[in-house]
Amino acid sequence: MGEYIRLGNLEVYKTSLKLSRQSWTIYQRLDWQTKKIIGDQFIRSVDSIGANVAEGYGRYHYLDRIKFYYNSRGSLLEAKHWLWLLKTRNFISRQEFDELIKDLNYFNYQLNKFISSTYQTKKDE
User: Fold this and answer.
1) SS3 (DSSP) at 89
2) Euclidean distance between the first and the last CA atom of the chain, given in angstroms as a whole number
3) Dihedrals φ, ψ of 60, to 5°?
4) Which tens digit of pLDDT belongs to each residue from 15-32?
5) Average pLDDT, the chain
6) Rounded-to-integer distance, Cα 91 and Cα 85, Å
7) Which Gene3D superfamilies does UniProt cross-reference here (predicted)?
């Protein structure tokens, strides 16, 4: 069994925190009505990405961990939906959209590798 890695040192978790910071910057600029209609759901879905990674990482059984990682992926897709709405309703620029979508896609790649490695760790035990 490998060495234990602290949550804050996991690359996938660090990326989720970056996503939260980027999204918070967008959220803060929105007016009250837009925050209420789209912004709140957008920021909750983005913050849920990292929260599910954290909760899953704290679980003992590998299948329990993976369930939370899948929840993180669901939150990722929800965040993309809200981001798309922010873009199509002209609340963010094309550049902001492209940058955050790129980072969300990179997180998705990291998360898929993390899920695979969690399965692999179980096979190796």
Assistant:
1) coil
2) 7
3) -85, -55
4) 999 999 999 999 999 999
5) 95
6) 9
7) 23S rRNA-intervening sequence
